[in-house]
Structures are given as C-alpha cells and as structure tokens.
Amino acid sequence: MYRTLNRTFGPLHWWPGDTPFEVAVGAILTQNTNWANVEKAIGRIKARGAMEPFALFGLDNGDLEELVRPSGFYRVKAKRLKAFLSTLCEDFGGDLAAMLSGDLLESRRRLLAISGIGEETADSILLYAGGRPLFVVDAYTRRILERHGILGGRPSYGDVQRLFMDVLPADAGLYNQYHALIVETGKRFCRKKPHCGQCPLREMPGRNSPGRRSVREATGRQPCSSGKKSSKRGSRKTAAPSS
Length: 243
Ligand code: SF4
Description:
This protein is mostly helical. The protein has 2 domains: 20-129, Endonuclease III, domain 1 (Orthogonal Bundle); 136-235, no CATH class. It has helices at residues 2-9, 20-29, 35-47, 53-57, 61-68, 74-92, 96-100, 104-112, 119-129, 139-147, 157-165, 172-188. It binds iron/sulfur cluster. The site of iron/sulfur cluster (SF4) has 14 residues, from helix 10.
C-alpha cells in the first residue's frame, strides 16, 4: 500500500507550518473542520503576532475565540488551545520541544491528559511537531482498511495503530509520509462514495476477500470491490492539511 501510494503521490512534505508550534496549533484546530478553515484561523493568529506560546496564552478568552472563529466550534477550540498552552507555558516554560521529548509514552500521556486532546490529535502533535515515531490513525485510515477487508468489527484507535506499528520500523519520516499518503487517497478517491476506478489502490485486495488481512498481506494484488456499501465507522470527517 505504501509503495503504491508513494509512487503515485511522491513526497507530500507534511505537515504545513512554519514552526512546530504552528503545527501543534493546527493539529488542535483541525478537529472536525476542513484545512482551509484552519488556515484562515492560523492566518488571523499570525496577523495578530500571536503564533508564539506566551503571546497566544496571554490573550483573553474572547480574543482567542475571535481569532480561531474560522475553524468552527471556536469556543471549544479556544478552550482546548488554552488548556494545551497552559501545560506548555506553565509546566515547560513555552518550550514545545521539551514538552514533546523524553519517554514517548509519557509524552503521549501528558498530551492526552489535556482536556479536548484525543489520540489522533496527540499523535499528530507528537509526529508532526515533535518528530516522534507514532503512526496517526484517522477516519480515512479506517475507511480504506475497512473497505479492503483489513479491518473488521470495531477496533480501537490503538488496535488500528498497532496494525501499522507492529510491522513498520519506528521511523517518524515513514509515518509522516504514510499518513499523508492515506489522507491524500481519502480526500481524492476514497470518499463517502469511492472513486475506485481512478484510485491507485484499486488493485489492492477488496472487502469481499475472505477473512481479515494484515497490512502486509493487503499489498497483494486482487481486484478491489466497488466499495459501494461503505461502513459508517469510516465516515467521520477528519480535516487534514492540504499537501
Ligand atoms: S480502491 Fe476504492 S475502496 Fe480502495 S482506497 Fe481506493 S477508493 Fe477506497
């Protein structure tokens, strides 16, 4: 799967952002919206000269809400940003690299303890802002794996993540590109109504293949299904940066 997608799309240079801090802010704002809206919010924060931990943390709630308004759910997102900034500024002196370094599981637990930060957001921050080797699982990942018979039932985030991390080397660069490739595939082809005919994964084993397959096995060559009856579990919209 990786080789096919990488050949098709080439390096995608994720995640867009001038600094790791901007990447982390983007990862929090991107929940449940499209990336174009996040870019507007990021543009407003930068125009205010606040894309820096203490500057952003120092804003009052109303100002912060106004800046992030284009990203949708702006009150909730302003609250999440404040919670993240509180840990970053008060516990780590605004040093994001320090916050994301050290024992990987401990860094992850620290992020997950922040109100409103779930596994996908925590792993996105650790991978894309911190360069830590954690595979990011999103709705597109689930949808593609489900449609090809690799996922069945209701696996947890961790179950899906382990499918990748158990067979791939712990390589942040590889995870970075792999997740970006999956999102690109999801956005372009594996939509609610899939466009299998043009999709680079059309030769990958399909949903009708017998049994649950491993990621490694899934790189075999059998015709894909039409994917007409997609599972609802893959339908949650997760925004992603455009490449
Ligand atoms: S071949 Fe079809 S089901 Fe498979 S990833 Fe592409 S669009 Fe989705």
